[in-house]
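Lecture 7 notes: from sequence to structure.
We start with the chain below.
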Amino acid sequence: MKKKLSYQNIEVGEELGKKEVLITDEMIRACADAIETKHPWYFEDSPFGGRIAPPTIFDNDTLRMLDENYDRFGSIHTRQVWEFKNPAKLGKRITLNARIIDKYIKRGRGYVTMELAAIDEDGLEICRGRHTSLISLEKGTGK
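Predicted structure tokens for the same chain:
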């Protein structure tokens, strides 16, 4: 049973999960279409030795992994930071790890920060992203 997503239920250090993803042609095309790009590296060869995925291919995975653990009816996205280190190549298996890295109260509102790390099958770090969302505080508690 999923927990209710609230400031009180979130624990810093909590692992949201691990997921293995195979970078497929369909994934690359869907992501490229979503960001409205026709960059040839996504459809042909690239200087990285084959086709690559758009860097933002894992953009929604942090929230998907949060949703596997918590009953979330939306949240307000307040900040996102990505560090792109290496391209995700077509045909590579990527392991995604997500966890809660911070929670805090600012101006009477609760915030949670999650981090997603993507590592390919060769141990190469693809990217690391931090996603901060506004989440509810239990009424009357102030915390």
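Points to note: The chain has two helices and seven strands. The mean pLDDT is 92.
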